[in-house]
Amino acid sequence: MGDSSSTGKNIGIWISDKKSHKLNWKELIKTCNAHGYNIVKFDLDIPFEDQGRIDIFLHKLTDVIAAADQGDVKASIIIGRVEQYLSNHPHITVIDPLNNVRLLLNRYCYYTILQDELSFQNHGIFTPAFAEFTTSDIEQNVEIMRSRGVKFPVICKPTVAHGSKLAHEMVLIFNERGLNVCKAPCVVQNFVNHNAVLHKVFVVGNKYHISERPSLKNFNASENLDPIYYSTGEVCKADSNSTLSILDPHDKSDIRMTLDEDKIKTIIRILRRKIGLVLVGFDVVIDNVSGNHAVIDINVFPSYDSFPNFFELLIESIEDTVSRSGNMDISDDILEDHTQNGLVNIGDSNASYSVMGMNIN
Fold first, then answer.
1. Position with higher pLDDT, 135 vs 359
2. Model's pTM, two decimal places?
3. Phi-psi sector, 342: left (phi>0), alpha (psi -120 to 50), beta
4. Do residues 298 and 104 lie in contact, with contact meaning Cβ atoms separated by under 8 Å?
5. Can you spell out the DSSP letters for 274-335?
6. Is 59 annotated as a binding residue?
């Protein structure tokens, strides 16, 4: 890593071993050095004060925060130390602030934020109706669904959106009988038929890129179908060959629904104002009847493996955050004016935008 005692500013980084192995450290260090930054790879088991001065703290502590919030003692101690360290050094710019990150650790929380955004309705954007189960009592859960307008089929998802592989294990449920597989706490959400196409949007500051991925085929409520278990990491991978993504013969597979760039920009602006993250990703599906765009998931610091020129744009976003917001939490309203200045799709080389030409694998 870079020498924290050399000239220039220092970026302290902590990411998990799994994410670290996927990161091109050589390219990151080269890019940072070219812009006058040194890299300090943080160790959570060593006193932070002993690891050198830093000016920016770049992290993906989602799993550690999630574990701490669920009562894990070691994780709680680590997060407490991180928060104390940042409190002791208010000059440090954090990408992204821990309290902002916490908003996306709970699906019910961020679905509520999305649902409460009334302006979405005017743009043909929505989050599918959802409800939270805190009990295994099926009769009570059916009543909760009815009161919130949730109808079969539904996707059952763990309430906790990070922390383990289980956070990405889903169940598609077609009837009341199938609710017995739900393990509280969990969220059930209306399944939107979308012709087995998922649009993953990766955001770095005010730059974004879109990747089209396979997704679940169309389903309807049925008393005869048993729950279907699946993992989003398997079904929605770029190279997935899951049978769950193959449209049935009666589906109109020849009709291609076009993603609306203006809707994507609206979603990004709202997320920056409501949640305030520099590094974020979200999943969109298009209702195959109305054409409205549904936001079905949001992720902190997603994988940017296929994001063109990611490190350059990362540094640009860090410098932009430092210059525009100083040491304020990036969710402050001052950022709204900036994000309204225009979002840039980095894959769009032409004046006329065609999202279908944006595919990255």
1. 135
2. 0.88
3. left
4. yes
5. HT--SEEEEEEEE-TTT--EEEEEEEES---TT-TTHHHHHHHHHHHHHHHHTTS-TTSTHH
6. no
